[in-house]
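Appendix B. One record, verbatim.
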Amino acid sequence: SVKGLSFGYTDEKVLDDVSLNIKPGEFVAIVGESGIGKTTLVRLMMSFMSQKDGIIEFYNQSGESEIANAATREFISYVPQGNTLFSGTIKENIQMGNLAATDEEITEALKMSSAYDFIMELPKGIDTVIGERGHGLSEGQAQRIAIARALVRKAPFLILDEATSSLDEKTEIKVLEGLKKLKPKPTCLLITHRKSVLNYCDREIKIENKHLY
């Protein structure tokens, strides 16, 4: 729940008195031009920055709520823009999402992110070593591993910031269909430029002129 949120990196506001309510289990798309404030909104939700005005809080189906702070990141799985993989094995990269994840849970996350098949074709499979920022993989392959890392976390709130932008449309659809089948169903916020993603969302919110529509 976002109420009366305003924020600016300088005296000029990026977001001005915006309010937003996302219900548990809802899939919501955030759209708008580049640099309009989509990622800023996500960073505020995750308490990487502090808003100038307004309240951001998380609540569950029982009505219990907590004001956004560093601790509420525990509820969130986040796939940011760009490549966030590190040097090491594919398995080690995925386990960063959940160090206690079992091999079965890792396999399930890889299948859901459409990464399993191409990984199994690699000489050492999931134990294949990749370089910093996924060196040795295509951008789309790296993105699918990052999505698997988020899924293995099994957090109730999932944020995908242009996280399927490097996937072809067929693979993107498979990933989105997989997300919709997750049990329990997470609340999902998708920042996107792609119209195809909107078909898998319950509603679309546009950021324009510092406001939400």
